[in-house]
Amino acid sequence: MRNPDNVFHLAIPCRDLDEAYDFYVTRLGCKLARRYNDRITLDFFGDQVVCHLSDQWDRDVTMYPRHFGVTFKDKQSYDNLLKLAKMRDIPFFQEPTHRFQGLVEEHETFFLIDPSNNLLEFKYYFDDRMMY
C-alpha cells in the first residue's frame, strides 16, 4: 500500500536539458526541484521524474512496451490537463481516445511525446476500481 509520504521515482533519458525543462516545466507545468549539468529533477504530479542527459534516447518511438504517466481519479483533473496540453500546443503522440466502451475498464486516454521521444500517457477510468 502506498504511503502518501513516499514518492515514486522514475529516471528517463533526455537529449537536451533545456528542451526537457521547456517541455516539463514551462509547458506541462511540472515543478523543477533541482538542476545539475547532467540532469533535472521534477515534481511530476506529486512523484519524481529525473531527466538524465543521455545519447541513449529512443529514436524509434512506440507506445509499447515503454511509457509512463498519470491515472487521474478525478475526471476534472484529466480534462484540465488535456485542455492545457491543447492550449499550450504540447505535441500529442496519440490524440484523446475512449477505450473499452461498455466494459468495466472503460477509460479515456491520450499520449504526449517529449522532445526526447519519451511517451507520457494520461488516463481517467470511469470506474476508479480499475486504476490498478
From TrEMBL:
Which InterPro entries does the annotation name?
Answer: Glyas_Bleomycin-R_OHBP_Dase (IPR029068), Glyas_Fos-R_dOase_dom (IPR004360), VOC_core (IPR037523)
Every copy of the VOC domain together lies at 6-125
Does the record's keyword annotation contain Transcription? no
UniProt keywords (A-Z) are: Dioxygenase, Oxidoreductase
Extract the GO molecular function terms from the UniProt entry.
Answer: dioxygenase activity
Q: Which SUPFAM superfamilies match?
A: Glyoxalase/Bleomycin resistance protein/Dihydroxybiphenyl dioxygenase
Which Pfam families does the record cross-reference, listed alphabetically?
Answer: Glyoxalase (PF00903)
Superkingdom, natural source: Bacteria
Q: What is the recorded name of this protein?
A: Extradiol dioxygenase family protein
